[in-house]
Specification:
heterodimer, A: 478 residues, alpha/beta, five-stranded parallel sheet, 19 helices, 34% helix, globular, B: 285 residues, Rossmann fold, seven-stranded mixed sheet, six-stranded antiparallel sheet
Chain lengths: 478, 285
């Protein structure tokens, strides 16, 4: 086996539940490499001296090093290399858009298929989780108390890093479960909740205290936290759904993707009536948007029993923002993609329930500010589709609830918090922020990276004798 | 945490719970609500705060046993804990010294108007309350209401207790005969709609508390969308109180009914399982 040249080994496909089977269950779709597959795939890595994949990674994971250790069978070394930069690899290996990050830069990919870095990352991380609960190394304890608001990827990373540094960390979570978007947003079939639970468990072992049902802005204000804690990290993400503002949007049967996914993932509505929260999708479902959340909503609808599920997207296939693998999986499961189509009205019946979606065809014009070609409606091309459920997956904004009584905390016009990218510092003294609350809806890995940056800066700040807070600097990065 | 300290049956279908929640009590204000879960598989139930005691660290909620979740809540005993209890959520009632105010509480709506009456009175208002129910046995807190109002009018639909009238009748009489500065109407959506229709011709500002379906209660899901003055709001964070004359009532009523079938199914299952549990209990003893 080891005699083969890297370029003779094909990229190892990911074992997956067959589409016909998985469209009826919520079990994980991608089942993970076997050790043989992982080692074969690791053999494909050229171990570049100047690894471009690392530059493609938002947190510069030591990719060639962890792959080499894996190839050599030194699994603990692989874990260590991987986790040196990424504290949540079992999660990132599953949800990162590798094709536009590390794998996009892979040299092997120039002539063929790139090394499946994400799948290897998941393999190593899953191996580590299978070894049982890790015993964290004890760091010298520090007196300072840090409040981490929210428990999504940015907060989990910041909390974990700070706890390892010895700080007394409390996570304040608004919901009754930890994990943020990893738990309420991403479905079980893409990210099993057991994977998230293992990370939470590890944090608790590190001494992080998690308090639930604590809504900042209501139960405590930011300024109260500023008084009570030595440092505050704001990682509440972007949880406020954006709607289209078209007629008929409040009819029964129109959901925000957040509502559908929260019912299904957090409240386990797919197990109704054993679990109390219901969810209803009809036989024909339209999901508006084509990001990862749209794919999740579409594929969840299918699993809830819909016969026909459409992705309605105003741009073309080339502009689809979802991960490549999600689109592929969705298509395999029979999701219908209506490109260059934009809803203009949700139609309802006499009971106030959705009966259809009125759309207009689009064509692509000149590139817009996002660099993608602007979709332009084609006059007179309106048409109607029969539908009984419509799900809006158009993105999210930070939830403004957390900002009540947070005077001095500068925010952008989009409602995101202004923070220094190098440190995570906001314009409010001793308050750091990172993740979607700063960037608007982005990726798990970038949120994780921001959590780490903030944790390091919190540590540096709390160790300083003089503690000046340069609000100008944060404001300048707006 | 979130222990039930006292449980009082108010009517055959209504129960009052005193919950240990010192942090929530510290911040709670009239007009706000909490979201609670009875057990781990439970749904998030929004309930308006019926009373709070900052010193004792308690919140009072009143629930009507209309479905499986509220029946399950009723099955808890004093000393039991709720699975979760989140609050205070929503915006508090805007309290101003208006002059003479009328608060109309129908059925379960009597509970939320209680702390609003008290706060309005403390702010120097002359507080008149109208409380009503379908029949006398469904009425509660008459004595408690008397303590926080200057005038209390009690009605029942069927006349089985006090005056036989709908809540809108004494409201109309007050609007005809007195100078009323502001009105609150809290209760079933259909009652609130008729309260606003009653006050509309008199041009008296009327506040209602919208009880749309909610999931998280923090602005995350938008299940509670309501239209007020032609604009869409989330009742959980923008409300729950709104200008009643601007509310699209038909939309609210229609959205409240979306899960009726599922609610019915859950209720039947719950009743079956509690009957089974009961018969097992009897056969054992």
């Amino acid at each position: 086996m080891t005699n083969r040249k890297p370029n003779q080994i094909p990229r190892q496909p990911m074992p997956a539940q067959p589409p016909e089977e998985r469209r009826h269950n919520f079990d994980e779709v991608a089942q993970g490499y076997t050790i043989e597959m992982a080692i074969d795939e690791a053999m494909r890595c050229l171990q570049c001296r100047n690894p471009r994949c690392v530059d493609g990674c938002p947190v510069q994971v030591r990719i060639p090093e962890f792959i080499k250790a894996l190839r050599d069978g030194d699994m603990w070394e692989a874990v260590e290399m991987l986790k040196d930069k990424n504290s949540l690899p079992a999660i990132c290996g599953r949800v990162c858009p590798q094709e536009s990050q590390c794998e996009a830069e892979c040299i092997v990919g120039l002539r063929g298929e790139p090394v499946a870095i994400g799948r290897l990352e998941r393999f190593v991380a899953d191996w580590e989780q299978q070894q049982g609960v890790r015993e964290p190394e004890a760091a010298p304890k520090r007196e300072e108390r840090v409040a981490v608001i929210g428990s999504g990827p940015a907060s989990l990373t910041a909390a974990g890093d700070l706890a390892k540094m010895g700080y007394r960390v409390e996570i304040l979570e608004a919901l009754h479960e930890p994990g943020g978007v990893l738990v309420y947003g991403i479905p079980e079939f893409r990210l099993p909740k057991a994977v998230v639970a293992a990370e939470i468990n590890y944090l608790e072992k590190l001494g992080v205290e998690i308090r639930y049902n604590v809504v900042i802005g209501k139960l405590y204000t930011l300024s109260e936290l500023q008084e009570k804690y030595d440092a505050v990290f704001l990682g509440t993400g972007a949880g406020l759904p954006i709607m289209m503002n078209i007629p008929g949007e409040n009819l029964n049967g129109v959901y925000s993707a957040n509502e559908l996914l929260t019912r299904v993932n957090l409240m386990k509505a797919f197990r109704f009536p054993e679990w109390d929260t219901p969810v209803r999708v009809g036989s024909k479902v339209a999901v508006v948007g084509a990001g990862n959340v749209a794919m999740d909503a579409a594929r969840s609808s299918l699993r809830l029993g819909a016969d026909e599920v459409h992705i309605v997207y105003r741009r073309s296939r080339d502009e689809v923002p979802a991960r490549h693998e999600e689109v592929e999986h969705a298509e395999e499961e029979g999701i219908i993609f209506d490109f260059l189509t934009n809803p203009i009205e949700v139609l309802g019946d006499e009971n106030g329930t959705v009966s259809g979606l009125r759309c207009i065809r689009m064509e692509l014009g000149e590139p817009d500010e996002s660099g993608r070609r602007r979709p332009i409606p084609i006059k007179g091309s309106e048409f109607e589709m029969e539908m009984d459920t419509v799900i809006m997956a158009l993105g999210t904004r930070p939830n403004p609830l957390v900002f009540s009584d947070a005077e001095g905390l500068e925010r952008s016009r989009r409602g995101t918090v202004v923070a220094d990218t190098d440190t995570g510092r906001t314009t409010l003294e001793r308050v750091w922020a990172g993740g979607d609350i700063v960037t608007g809806s982005a990726t798990v890995i970038s949120a994780m990276g921001a959590g780490r940056v903030a944790a390091n800066d919190i540590d540096a700040y709390l160790r300083e004798e003089e503690q000046p807070w340069d609000t100008e600097r944060a404001a300048a990065s707006a | 945490m979130y222990r039930i300290l006292a449980k009082t049956t108010l009517t055959p279908v209504t129960t009052e719970y005193l919950i240990e929640a010192p942090e929530v009590a510290r911040q709670a204000k009239a007009g706000q609500f909490v979201v609670l879960r009875v057990h781990e598989q439970g749904e998030r139930i929004p309930l308006t705060i019926a009373d709070y005691d900052r010193e004792a660290g308690t919140i009072t909620v009143v629930a009507q046993e209309i479905g499986s979740s509220t029946l399950r809540l009723k099955s808890l005993e004093v000393g039991d804990s709720l699975a979760s209890f989140t609050g205070p959520l929503g915006r508090p009632t805007e309290i101003e010294p208006d002059g003479t105010v009328v608060l109309v509480g129908g059925g379960l709506g009597i509970a939320p108007i209680y702390p609003i009456c008290r706060t309005l009175r403390e702010a120097g208002n002359h507080v008149i309350a109208i409380i009503g129910a379908r029949s006398g046995e469904l009425l509660f807190w008459e004595d408690k209401m008397r303590e926080v109002t200057d005038e209390l009018i009690v009605v029942t639909d069927d006349g089985s207790y006090a005056r036989k009238a709908l809540v809108t009748e004494p409201l109309k009489e007050l609007l005809e005969s007195r100078e009323i500065d502001r009105v609150w109407g809290i209760g079933p959506a259909i009652m609130m709609k008729f309260v606003t229709l009653t006050t509309k011709p008199y041009g008296v500002e009327t506040i209602v508390s919208l009880n749309s379906i909610m999931v998280d209660g923090t602005g995350m899901c938008g299940a509670c969308r309501v239209v007020v003055g032609g604009r869409t709001f989330f009742a959980c964070v923008d409300g729950p109180e709104f200008d009643g004359h601007q509310v699209d009532w038909d939309l609210l009523l229609s959205r409240q009914r979306y899960y009726v079938e599922e609610e019915q199914r859950a209720l039947e299952l719950f009743q079956q399982s509690s009957q089974q549990a009961e018969s097992q209990e009897t056969s054992r003893s």
